[in-house]
Amino acid sequence: MAIDLTYDPDIEKLIDRTRAFTRDHVLPIEDKFLGNVTDAGGDRLRVEMQAAAKEAGVFAPHAPVEYGGHGLSMSDRAPVFEEAGYSLFGPIALNLGAPDEGNVHMLAHIASAAQKEQFLAPLARGDVRSAFAMTEPAPGAGSDPSALTTAAERVVGGWKINGHKWFITGADGAGFFIIMARTSGKPGDRGGATMFLAPADTAGITVGRHIGTLDKAMIGGHCEVFFENVFVPDENVLGAVDEGFAYAQVRLGPARMTHVMRWLGASRRAHDIAVAQVARREGFGSKLGDLGMVQKMVADNEIDIAATRALLIKACFELDRGGHASNETSIAKTFAAEAIFRIVDRSIQMCGGLGVSDDLPLARLSREVRPFRVYDGPSEVHRWAIAKRTIGAAKRAAREAQS
C-alpha cells in the first residue's frame, strides 16, 4: 500500500499563510534586532506579534480548537512549525515556542477540567507564558531525571515544595510553573516524582539570575529558580502522585520533535541564503556554485534536510498512533540536532567572511541551533538509550530462543 505524504488542502493553506506571515511580518523584526528577543522588546513584542498572528489566522496551530487553536496532529504540525521556524521569532509569534508549546500539549492530555480552565486556556490564548521546572544543579536532575532532589512533602490540604532548579527556560515573566518534585523514594530511584502546577506569584517561588547562554531568541531566558516552602493545594497536582516521570513522556517525545520542526526551518533559511550567495558570487573564474567543493556542501545540506524531515515524519506518525515512540524520537532528535548544525555551519562556510558577520543571519543561527545537541537530552544520552533498547531486545530474543 502506498504511503500518502500529502497534506489536506486546509493544512496546505495554513502552511502557505504561515510562510507568508513569517517572512513578511516576523523576519524583518528579527533582522532589525539581530535575533535578540530582549532587545526587540521581550513580552511587549510577543503580545504584538501574537495579535498579528491571530489576525492572519496562523496562531496556535497545535492548541486544541476549543482553546482557540487549530488542533493539528503531530504530523500536520511538522510543515507548519517548520515554516514558523524560518525566523527565530516565528515560534514566539505563533505561540508555538518552547516551553509553552510542550506545556500546552501536556496539559491538554493530562490536566483536569479545572486545571485546563485555570492554566491551559490562558496559555493557549497567549495571555500568559509558562515554565517547566525540572533541571537542577548537580547532583540533581539533568540528563538523568532520576537524580531529582527537589522534594514535595505532604501537608494538610496539599504539598510543600523545596528545591533549587536552573536552566528553566522562560522562567522570567512566566505566569505559572509546572514543577517536578520528588514525592517518594530517594535521588537515583526511577520513580517517585510528581508534577505540580503553581502560579508564579505563589509565595516561596523566586526567579533568580539569567544564566548566560549562546542563544538569545528564547523569551524569558534560562533562569535559576528557587522553591522555598511553596504550598501547592491537592487540586493542583498534575496527574497522579508518584507518576510524574511517566507523565513527562507525554511532553518530552513530542517536544523533541517540535524542536526539530522549528530548527529545521531555521537551517533551511541558512541554506537558502548560502545557495543564493554562491549562485551569484564570482570567484576563481566562475560562479562559486559551479565549484565542486561548494557543490558538495550544497548537496550535503540537501541530504541532511531531506533525512531530517524523513526521520521527523516517521516519529510523528508513531506519536499520532498513540505510542511514546521513544526510539523514533530519540533517533530523529539526535540526527536532527547534529544535521541542523551541519547545515548552518556549511552555509557559513559557503558565505565566507559574510557568514560570520552580522550582515547575514548565519552566525546567529549557528548560535541558536548549537544548544539543540544538549537541550531535551544530549546526543550522547539518546545514543545510550537507543543502544540500550536495541541490545535489550537482542538479549530478550536470545533468552526466548533458549527457552
TrEMBL record:
Residue span, Acyl-CoA oxidase/dehydrogenase middle domain: 131-230
Domain of life: Bacteria
Keyword entries, A-Z: FAD, Flavoprotein, Oxidoreductase
Signal peptide extent: none
Domain Acyl-CoA dehydrogenase/oxidase N-terminal: 10-127
Cofactor: FAD
PROSITE patterns in alphabetical order: ACYL_COA_DH_2
InterPro entries in the cross-refs: Acyl-CoA_dehydrogenase (IPR050741), Acyl-CoA_DH_CS (IPR006089), Acyl-CoA_Oxase/DH_mid-dom (IPR006091), Acyl-CoA_Oxase/DH_mid-dom_sf (IPR046373), AcylCo_DH-like_C (IPR036250), AcylCo_DH/oxidase_C (IPR009075), AcylCoA_DH/ox_N (IPR013786), AcylCoA_DH/ox_N_sf (IPR037069)
Acyl-CoA dehydrogenase/oxidase C-terminal domain span: 242-389
Family the UniProt entry places it in: Belongs to the acyl-CoA dehydrogenase family.
Assembly, per entry: Homodimer.
Protein name: Acyl-CoA dehydrogenase family protein
